[in-house]
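Cross-posting from the modeling subforum.

Setting up a comparison between two proteins and wanted a second pair of eyes on the formatting. Protein 1 (sequence, then structure tokens):
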Amino acid sequence: MDTSAVLHTDDFPQYADGDVEIILSASRCYKLHKSILCRASRTFATLLREEGVTLSKKARDAGITTRYRLVLNISGSTWMFTRDELNANGKSVARLVVPYENANGRSVWLGYNYLDAFFRAVYNKPMNLNHRDDSSVLHDLLGTLDCAEMLKGVSIHIYTAQSFITNAP
């Protein structure tokens, strides 16, 4: 998947200087920072432990900053991130399969929203939770905390969830 067409701004979830591209699906891509992700999650710290690709001068001159790419793999009720191999131009070598969100008419996996909320919490951004009623908010918070636990990053997320609950309308 060529994500170069994705608008890269300096705001969540696309930071122009981000060195980690996280691909959840064909339409959900993030360009974030290794240092922030590693501080927020032991899972990301492990995945990003090895040095990223050394970008060529041509790539750097073109404004490419991606040295790492993580692709979400979903199998049934389990999910994990896989590190993709990049070349000196920041392009995928392994060409990992990127899932589509609504393949064959299936409903969209709620984990996409929970992972988005986790990344927003890491970057101290408002979480997009379902505000329909209290049980919806709690369901989304619990799902987000489950994702945070899977990523071994619960502590940072508990404070964000607590803040959200105490400041809810």
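Protein 2 (same layout):
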Amino acid sequence: MKKINFFPVLLISAVTVLIFLSGSLTELFELNKYCEWWQVWRLITGHFTHWGAEHLFYDLGMFTVLGLICVNINRKAFYILIFVIPFISSLIILNFSGITCYRGLSGIDTGLFTFLSLELIRRFIKNKKYIPAGTAVLAVTMLLLKTCYEASTGNMIFVSEGFTLCISAHLTGIVCGFFIQTLKNFINIYPSKIIK
């Protein structure tokens, strides 16, 4: 069995908490429609900033759990997801949404959840374990229902703090998780052997 890799997720989590604890770092890193054109880091770093403690708690909790599993199942896919999702989401937010300022890991969380669920479905079916595969299908279905509910009502299920929901980040996460999972064999992203 391969040694479990905690470092990347714990480092990202620690940096996320540090950014949250510093108001000036949060302002420097948040995604903002009115920032200068040369502040391109915000396309990625805005996703590691948060509006409040409750927002941070839910986002970082999910990121830590999903991140630790995903980085150990498929490290290359994990790194691709944590950079591609923020980049694409940010471009969509800046160009097609009415949101002027974005913060949060939820788009990345959604992508990791989608990727992991589809990976588990694939592995369970390959090993003829249909009940666990059905459970993973149910998990993806629940994520899609949650996202549809949030998109149709504008209400968040887990966080009650007063900020505007950015459903495009969640949708981008779902689409990226699906495509990275589907295309991983074509772009040379081979999984490790921790979970068979």
